[in-house]
Amino acid sequence: ALCYPARLRPTVEPLDLAKLGALHFQTPDYDRYPCLKLAKEAGAAAGTYPTVMAAADEIAVEAFLQERIAFTDIPIIVEQVMHNHDSTSHPELVAIDAADIWAREAAVAALDALLRANK
Prior knowledge:
The protein is mainly α. 57% of the residues lie in helices and 0% in strands. The protein has helices at residues 17-20, 34-45, 49-65, 74-83, 93-117. The longest helix has 25 residues, at 93-117. The model has no long low-confidence stretch (mean pLDDT 94).
């Protein structure tokens, strides 16, 4: 989709599951990976929650990359924004865009509050 109608040449070999042999799965450790839990909750809640989660995560990750917050602060910001969101079920594009804008603003506010609290 990024280069339509042209096609990019693959840079890695195709995955051959038969050659791989076996896959082993474990129950996710949501304490160790809290954002995975938030993503699962957003997906289950549907509506505009996935948009809100992704937008808040982008703001929080950018703050981490700028070394303004700790890595462990990312899920705190995302969870707070998701908790304060009133989702729209079966949203049209306008509602999705509005949720994205709201979540980014809410994440900036949550980030600012966290930074003030940590001073």
